[in-house]
Write a structure and sequence with these properties.
homodimer; 404 residues; alpha/beta; Aspartate Aminotransferase, domain 1; Aspartate Aminotransferase, domain 2; 7-stranded mixed sheet; 4-stranded antiparallel sheet; 17 strands
């Protein structure tokens, strides 16, 4: 008789955003006349930039003729895209990353969920708290996290690193020693950034204890301040200890297009085995590449026209961030984030729990956000709003919140 | 200090098609003047059908305007595609599969590699021998296969079911009892088909012993004979024991477009837990959906124009299959397959091993095929040719083989 992976059963409740979706659908079914505005899930709303649309049409036409038709993509992704990423995201910043250290995928979420497979079950993970749920959940499914304490909302074998107002939402080095460290900056959900000096401390620490940093750089395009690193490879020694996850979802509006890239420098080794060779093996065995037309769209992101158009797109969302930040502040909320990231993190008023505030906001302002407790215990009493709505909706949502 | 997943190190050599690719590149580098024809990897060569191209362009245009732009797709895939699959692939054949039992993905290879995650490490798998390498390799990476016997090319904890000329390349029920049974019909690599009666025996057996069948139906569009089932759900009771993997790669030429679907009926349960709920959780946590434009292309596969055009495309490849089959037969080879599948399976001449014949063919005819031993021990002494080339290349390749 077949037996299921019982680790799946350990996961408490369903995936955060699925739960939110259900609550919203149920509210909308009961109140079909209300116009609900979502500043909840981090999904973009602006159309693809013209340079990307043009390239997509061209690539579709290539698929229509035998001479230019493309079948299976190369295992690691097309050379043209890996080269564009290497040049623009790394060489241009003085970082030494070779095209063959970049693995193209159909999105950072998949890579983020799958990367833990390369490691033994006995590795101990450390995560920021609050944190994007996929880091922990994917390790739960692999049986790496111990037992769940429902009352405290924590796993016995996970090292939680609180990110709270007192430390500017940047974690301290942990007291216990982890094997895998998940970091995401600019951060989801807090919107906090890390300075180059602070990130260098993490790289030094990881090298000292022999840990691997899994660095999620999904929001780097939103960085507006100096001295905030756009990639962990700006830090010395990161090639020996850091994997970087890169996404096209937020910097180019590809949430529905699906494209990501994971960087694994060949210098990360356990004895003589490179992590790079393991990920290459995983790609070869369990993956068949991102669609050709999508990889061409990715290339267009790095064209001169694409860069200029996307700069405008990001400015559009960051204008929303400012509206949210300043609107809430003027209404008396304690807010942070929104300067180097499209996320605004606020303290819930009147000692409401995160989910109480979720319901309160949905019912009274018909605005959807994300409860901080869904991101970890230190997220309790906090709430995330995102800048990815249209300007009109964002402004209206903030007006409504100010009015309640 | 981090520790790697040592199961990866157990995998012998590199992935079959990567090895072939390296050998071919090396031969081509030494002999740049030779025109190598590949009948090796199962990659299509015909352009996308006009109905699909048209839909892709339309979908790209939708992504260009805020009103029609699409962000993250629904977890399970778009309703329009799941409904089209449910109606055309199942309801039309009298099979009861609901749209919400169909999970859209970026390809059957990923699903095929990931599906084993839902099961405990202690489950024992049974595979046809020879077999598509991903079934075994993905289980090796999960630590489910025991130790590797290099001499015999087998894993201690895998049940191999020989598929040889004596049993018409359809496996007998195994003597030892498996928990997971991988079946693929029409078969890769042998090109063999299974009758409905024989498949019903497998379904009955799986229900009797409490096993799950993972049924790979990637080649069903190539079925030309009556009484060969297009889906396992044509068999009674399959809803209680069978998962079906479906691919758009071969039936619509989507190898570079990336689209697949996995069917998990809600009747498959271990105690009260449905396999469906586990896969839904995996999708929600580690996956973010197939691209909208690709899902629209998938919908076009089921349009009247799409169906007619793809029928022609498949007829084109099956004409190649006939050229290969008859050409080799007339040259004295023992051949099978090629009637309900785009694969032709042949016995290597003069007691050559599969890899010896690979080298022989590459050097003397400049034709690339796939060594049977790469698919499992019973594949030794055999060789796979595929019908996915152009007609001109296929005919030339067969002429060359006949000439050596």
């Amino acid at each position: 008789m077949f037996k299921i992976n019982t680790n799946y059963q350990k996961l408490p409740g369903s995936y955060l955003f699925s739960t939110i979706g259900k609550k919203v659908r149920s509210f909308q079914a009961e109140h079909p006349e209300k116009k609900v505005i979502s500043l909840g899930i981090g999904d973009v709303t602006q159309p693809l930039a013209p340079a990307i649309i043009e390239e997509l049409h061209k690539a579709v036409d290539e698929m229509a003729a035998a001479e230019t038709f493309k079948g299976y993509a190369p295992d690691l992704g097309y050379e043209f895209l890996r080269t564009a990423i290497a040049e623009n995201d790394f060489a241009a910043r003085g970082c030494e990353i070779q095209p063959d250290e970049i693995f193209v995928s159909d999105g950072a979420k998949c890579d983020c969920g799958n990367i833990q497979e390369l490691f033994d079950r006995d590795n101990r993970i450390a995560v920021c708290d609050p944190v994007y749920p996929v880091y922990v959940d994917s390790n739960v499914m692999a049986g790496r996290t111990g037992t769940y304490d429902e009352g405290r909302g924590i796993w016995s074998n996970v090292i939680y690193m609180p990110c709270v107002a007192e430390n500017n939402f940047v974690p301290e080095l942990p007291k216990e020693t982890p094997d895998l460290i998940y970091l995401c900056f600019p951060n989801n959900p807090t919107g906090a950034a890390i300075t180059k000096e602070r990130l260098q401390e993490w790289v030094d620490y990881a090298r000292r204890v022999g840990a691997v940093i899994i660095y999620d750089a999904a929001y780097e395009a939103y960085i507006s301040e100096e001295n905030v690193p756009h990639t962990i490879y700006e830090c010395e020694g990161a090639r020996e200890c850091a994997v970087e996850l890169r996404s096209f979802s937020k910097n180019a509006g590809f949430t529905g297009v699906r494209l990501g890239a994971t960087v694994i420098p060949k210098d990360i080794k356990a004895e003589d085995i490179t992590l790079h060779s393991l990920w290459a093996r995983r790609h070869g065995t369990k993956y068949n590449g991102a669609p050709y037309i999508v990889q061409k769209a990715g290339e267009a992101v790095y064209s001169e026209a694409g860069k200029a158009q996307l700069k405008e797109q990001i400015a559009y969302y960051m204008k929303n961030a400012k509206v949210i930040y300043e609107g809430l502040k003027s209404a008396g909320y304690s807010v942070s984030g929104g300067v180097n990231a499209p996320y605004i993190w606020l303290e819930t008023p009147k000692n409401m729990t995160s989910w109480e505030f979720f319901d309160y906001l949905l019912e009274n302002a018909n605005v959807v956000g994300t409860p901080g407790s869904g991101f970890g215990p230190s997220g309790e009493g906090h709430f995330r709003l995102t800048a990815f709505g249209s300007y009109e909706n964002t402004a209206e949502a903030i007006d409504r919140i100010k009015g309640i």
